[in-house]
Amino acid sequence: MSSTLPSTSRSLPIALIRAREGVMAPIREMLSETGITEQQWRVLRVLSEHGLLDTTTLAERSSLLFPSLTRIAASMRDKGLITQTRDEIDRRRQLIEITAAGQKIIDDRTSQSIQIVDDIKTKLGTDNYETLLDLLGLLDLNSND
Amino acid sequence: MSSTLPSTSRSLPIALIRAREGVMAPIREMLSETGITEQQWRVLRVLSEHGLLDTTTLAERSSLLFPSLTRIAASMRDKGLITQTRDEIDRRRQLIEITAAGQKIIDDRTSQSIQIVDDIKTKLGTDNYETLLDLLGLLDLNSND
DNA sequence: ATCATTTCCTTAACATGTTAAGTATTGTAA
DNA sequence: TTACAATACTTAACATGTTAAGGAAATGAT
User: Fold this and answer.
1) CA–C1' nearest nucleotide, residue A67
2) Using H for helix, E for strand and C for coil, what is the string for chain A?
3) CA distance A31 to A117
4) Helix (H) or strand (E) run with residue B80 in it
5) End-to-end alpha-carbon separation of chain B, Å?
6) Residue A67: CB less than 7 A from any atom in strand D
7) pLDDT at A81
8) CB contact under 8 A, B38 and A120
9) Which of A18, A65, B65, B83 is the most buried (most CB within 10 A)?
10) Total Cβ atoms within 10 A of residue A117
11) Would the CB atoms of A19 and B140 count as touching at under 8 Å?
């Protein structure tokens, strides 16, 4: 198909990193006053949306590797943002739930978050925004091609 | 524009992370035998394309933060993949260049890299691939909107 | 010339990414 | 029931991401 590598300025991995920087910059700014990281925000969002989850499912839905989530969950438990309990039926499993304090971090920033998403939609155009999500979905390993 | 946050399954930051996973998986597999990381590969690619570069320009073109590049460059120098020299005119600057050993790592894997890119183009379709790069470019902070 | 500012880079500290090895519990099959 | 395999995590070790502080050289204003 091609006979040469694309210029690094037209490289998909680099484009993905830079796009992520652009998207995350305002979110990070929003979170700077909370003392939580972008990853912890993602965990809170997933827990808020799905309720009680085991660690494996939480890792998958928040796109975090297991060892990262182990550390992040410990840190979030210490901050009182989540609770961890053992599944009494399958004692290997750990069940994680958001606390009121964790939910409040989300609730207090919902309108600001919506504004950030809307700014991106405006920048791209809504059609392009949806197209972009669809194309990115095609690259996802764990999707059904 | 919107009144609710998107579901986390339709979140742009998460979609970007997952797409990156999908794109990088075969590249990581390719690099596993070399002992260099995905970031070091990026540095080699940029240096190979642009020749001698100062650290600031190299960081920008390889999309690495300065402190990361400081560590990565030290490690790559120790491995003999790059050389670091001081700019004699502006002695604050450091000039970095790829070595023959570094270039060989690229040369030995060029066809395999092209194949990986082609696989992605095939998966998306070439038009979609170009569209995706263009849309991602719109999200880049440092681009001229 | 001198001092403050800016630029270019390094170091530090902590969080996460990544791979591999380890532990405890459950499932399975002889 | 016992031994082997699989599952659900945890820990370890090292690399990178991220923010803040620091150091050295150049620039600019006085």
Assistant:
1) D10
2) CCCCCCCHHHCHHHHHHHHHHHHHHHHHHHHCCCCCCHHHHHHHHHHHHHCCEEHHHHHHHCCCCHHHHHHHHHHHHHCCCEEEEECCCCCCCEEEEECHHHHHHHHCCHHHHHHHHHHHHHHHCHHHHHHHHHHHHHHCCCCCC
3) 15
4) none
5) 21
6) yes
7) 98
8) no
9) A18
10) 21
11) yes
Residue A2 is predicted with a pLDDT of 79
- The torsion of the CA quartet A30, A34, A38, A40, rounded to 10 degrees, works out to -150
pLDDT for A145 equals 56
Q: Measured in angstroms, what separates residue A75's CA from nucleotide D11's C1'?
A: 16
- b or e along A18-52 (b: 16 or more beta carbons within 10 Å of the residue's beta carbon)? bbbbbbbebbeebbeeeebeebbbbbbbbbbeeee
Domains of chain A listed by start with CATH number: 11-33+109-145 (no CATH), 35-103 (1.10.10.10)
pLDDT of residue B6: 87
Please give the pLDDT value at position A5.
85
Contact B23 A13 (CB under 8 A): yes
- Of the two residues B95 and A142, the one the predictor is more confident about is B95
Strand partners, A83: A97
CB contact at 8 A, A98 and A47: yes
B54 touches strand C (CB under 7 A): yes
- Residue B143 CA to residue B136 CA, distance in Å, equals 10
Q: What mean pLDDT is predicted for residues B63-88?
A: 97
